[in-house]
Specification:
The protein is an alpha+beta fold. Helices cover 32% and strands 23% of the residues. The chain has five helices and ten strands; from the N terminus they run αββββαβαβαββββα. It has a six-stranded mixed beta sheet with strand order 1-10-9-4-5-6.
Length: 199
Amino acid sequence: MSSRRFALISIATLLLAGCDKPGAGSGASFKAVDITGAEYARTLSLQDPDGKTRTLADFKGKVTVVFFGYTQCPDVCPTTMAELAQVKKSLGADGERIQGVFVTVDPDRDTPELLKAYMASFDPSFVALRGTPDQTAAMAREFKVFYAKVPGKAEGTYTMDHTAGSYVFDAAGKVRLFVRYGSGADALAADLKTLLAAG
C-alpha cells in the first residue's frame, strides 16, 4: 500500500476521531493522539484462533494495544506488531502488563492456524482475533476503522487497504490513544509507561 494512501486513511480516521472531541480532562500528556472519552472503540468481541470469544474485559489489568490488519500485509502490519513486541520487551517486567491484540480484516484468508502462527512470530502472548465478514465489518465500524479489498494484477488476488494505526486501552479497559503508524518505538514506549504508571 502506498504511503500516500496510508496518510489519507490515517487523516480520515483522525478526522472521525475529532468529531467526538475526546481527550478533555485526561490529565496526561501523550505522544499519540489522546482520544480519552471517545464514543467509539468501546466494545470488541471476536473469536481467538482457539474459537474462544474474547472481549476487552478479558484484558483488564493490562494496557492493551489493538491493531486491525491482515497477515499478508507487506509492510505496515508486520512493522507495527514487531515494534509493539520490541517495546513490550524493552519494558522488562512491566512488559508483562502489555497486551497486543491483532484483529484481521481479511477473515477469508486469515485462518485460525495462520493467525496463531503469525502472532507467535512476534510475541506468543499477543492475541489474534477473527470474525465472520459481518462481524469484522461491525467491529470496524465500532472502531471507525477503514478497510477494503484492492484487486491484484493476477486474477483472484487482492491486497487490503486499511487504517494504519493502533488503539491503546488503559488497564481499566477504556480507550485512551490512537497511535499513528510511523510514530516510532520510543514514543509508543513513553505512552505505555505513562498508562502503566497510572494503573
